Amino acid sequence: MLFSEIGLGPEVLRAVEDAGYSQPTPIQEKAIPWVLQGRDVLGCAQTGTGKTASFTLPMIDILASGRARARMPRSLILEPTRELAAQVAENFEVYGKYHKLNMALLIGGESFGDQIKKLERGVDVLIATPGRMMDLFDRGNILLSDIKILVIDEADRMLDMGFIPDIERIVGLLPKMRQTLFFSATMPPEIRRLADAFLMNPREITVAPPASPAATVTQAVAMVRGEDKREALRHLLRTEDVKNAFIFCNRKRDVALLHQSLTKHGFNAGALHGDMVQSKRTETLEQFRQGEIALLCCSDVAARGIDIAGVSHVFNFDVPHHADDYVHRIGRTGRAGKTGRAFMLATPDDSRTLGAIEKLIGREIPRIMIDGLETPDMSEGEGDGGRRRRGGRSDSAAKVGSRRRGGSRSDAASEPPREVQAEAATVAEETVEARRPERPERSERPERQDRPERGGRDRDRNRNRDTRGETREGGRSEGSRNDTRPPRQDDRGEPRRRWRDEDDGPTVIGFGDDVPAFMLRVARPVARTVPPETFDGSDTPEA
Ligand code: AMP
After folding, report:
1. What b/e string do you get for 255-281 counting C-beta neighbours within 10 Å, with b at 16 or more?
2. Which residues line ligand 1 (CB under 6 A)?
3. Which of 137, 199, 271, 274 allows an S-S link to 40, with CB 3.0 to 4.6 Å?
4. DSSP symbol at 169
5. Under CATH, to which class is 3-206 assigned?
6. Between 342 and 429, where is the model more confident?
7. How far apart, in Å, are the Cα atoms of 443 and each of 301, 342, 361?
């Protein structure tokens, strides 16, 4: 099918042609006609499939007629991260260039003043992260009664980031008569429940491929000791033909340390993580996009959806805690049919997590050895993916003893990593960019102002959000994916245990002999006394 046959208007088609696309991707082919007909759509698709255009193109056509009034946006697109929101806004700019639609991007970390001014002028398309959106709503800067189209993008990621209560609240404020487009890479029961609640007789469209990194990405894993990781990385950076690369760390602090270290060793590197101010995040990403920075040390804030053409390499300085993050991370390379190379450094403590990744992608990642570095005995690890320690140096690695350079290398060690390509793990590509259905990057929480309508416990939580800004990273706790509570971290970025977990103390808080009056009035099940999205006040999120 050609774009010209899909039912879009001539201006949109011209913009699509200018962008260089002649054929819709499967999600576009399936979704656009239904969106144009005004139907609700439930799309099971991940980034990289052309999903964004599947809703932006028909929305531009639909919104072309009609005018927005001050503070009353006509459509709303909710995105889990600022970067994704900004990318959607870029899509509107590219495809909407022959229309005169007003767009506002409401994301945290940027001035309220400018965003309010835009809202005052009237916007046709409002693209927002839930936290900033609710802030502006609570301040009275947005009226939601004119929303005709709602897009909830990356719903499963919203769930992972604890945004679902916000989403439910926002949807409750919208007119019942509206068109809703709901996209999620995966459909766990909680997401299905939301889809059932938000959508009316939707067309269901699934284009999610199985867990499969792009066929164009060559993968390898180097077994190293924790204390050798930086040296191993430098070795790979020097021996590989690296044009540009994402270098993923599990923790924000490690991103900063690795960035410093690489800079000290003369590499042209930048850093990107959720603790940085938004202007710096945007600037760094743009510098990387433009090639001014060759290496981007980053957290998982960059793992999902960031679309930069021609990235030659991805390095996993840390084995990601969650297997699906591996697929998201390496999906930053090998995009749009180009080849890419993905290397990971694994220590003995990572053996279990590495095993989970290989199980997910359905094959073993070829092992390589780094010239001049000892390969540790992987059985010495404690199999926890190195979570207890920062900086990659694991307890067990420390036990291995002094470095024995070159002492235990196998024949494979003398081969340059590039030659691993022949035995690289490759799998069939099914879409523009076939990858594992993208799971939410656990990267950030929105900053928010007080929410007067919520109870004290929530106010405490919001205060924590406010002071920390969008600092959550690697924040998904060890709990169920369906848990809608925001993840918590300790001051080192480690996921914190919940009060109900293990040995953190009693799971019932007593009042001694004093029984408060409210307890005498209503008998409720104990498990319901703490709403699912709230925390024990003694264990608040990272400030
Ligand atoms: P998305 O899934 O929206 O993140 O899109 C992934 C990439 O596919 C982006 O770089 C888009 O520009 C690109 N893309 C979108 N639509 C098409 C198309 N019809 N043909 C080829 N590439 C596309």
Report:
1. bbbbbeebeeeebebbbbbbbbebeeb
2. 21, 23-25, 28, 47-53, 305, 307, 432
3. 199
4. H
5. alpha beta
6. 342
7. 5, 21, 23
Q: Which of 65-74, 115-124, 348-357, 367-376 is predicted with the least confidence, judged by mean pLDDT? A: 367-376
> Number of helices (H) and strands (E), helices first, in the chain?
17, 14
Measured in Å, residue 44 CA sits from the centre of ligand 1 at 16
**Nearest CA, atom 13, ligand 1:** 50
Residue 458 parent element (H or E): helix 456-468
Site of tokens 């400018």: 114
Residues found in the chain: 543
Q: Are 151 and 75 in contact (CB under 8 A)?
A: yes
The answer to whether residue 455 scores a pLDDT higher than 70 is no
pLDDT of residue 235 exceeding 60, the answer is yes
pLDDT at 409 over 60: no
The CATH fold of domain 217-407: Rossmann fold (3.40.50)
* Nearest CA residue ID for atom 6, ligand 1: 48
Ligand 1 centroid, distance to 51 Cα (angstroms): 7
From 390, 410, 489, 475, select the one nearest 441 (Cα to Cα): 475
Atom nearest to 3 CA in ligand 1: 19
The predicted model gives 339-362 an average pLDDT of 93
Let me know if 452 is exposed, middle or buried by CB neighbors in 10 A (0-12, 13-18, 19+).
exposed
Q: What is the pLDDT of residue 323?
A: 86
Compute, in angstroms, the gap from residue 392 CA to the centroid of ligand 1: 36
What is the DSSP secondary structure assignment for residue 72, as one 8-state letter? B
Residue 297: strand, helix, or coil: strand
What CA–CA distance (Å, rounded) separates 504 from 132?
Answer: 34
With pLDDT > 70 as the criterion, what percentage of the chain qualifies? Answer: 68
Domain 3-206 and domain 217-407, same fold? Reply is: yes
d(CA 488, CA 541): 5
Residue 372 C-alpha from the chain's centroid? 36
Q: Which of 283, 291, 304, 8 is nearest to 156 (CA)?
A: 304
| Nearest-10 crossing angle of helices 164-173, 189-198 | 10
Cα distances (angstroms) measured from residue 489 to each of 344, 368, 466: 25, 34, 15
Identify the CA nearest to 463 among candidates 450, 452, 473: 450
Please give the structure tokens belonging to residue 75. 């459509």
Q: Which residue has the higher pLDDT, 524 or 268?
A: 268
Distance (Å, whole) CA 82 – CA 428? 31
Q: Residue ranges of the domains in the chain?
A: 3-206, 217-407
**Global pTM value:** 0.59
SS3 string, 313-382, reads EEEECCCCCCHHHHHHHHCCCCCCCCCEEEEEEECHHHHHHHHHHHHHHCCCCCEECCCCCCCCCHHHCC
Q: What band does 168 get if pLDDT is binned at 50, 70 and 90?
A: very high
Query: What is the whole-number distance in angstroms between the Cα of residue 213 and the centre of ligand 1?
Result: 17
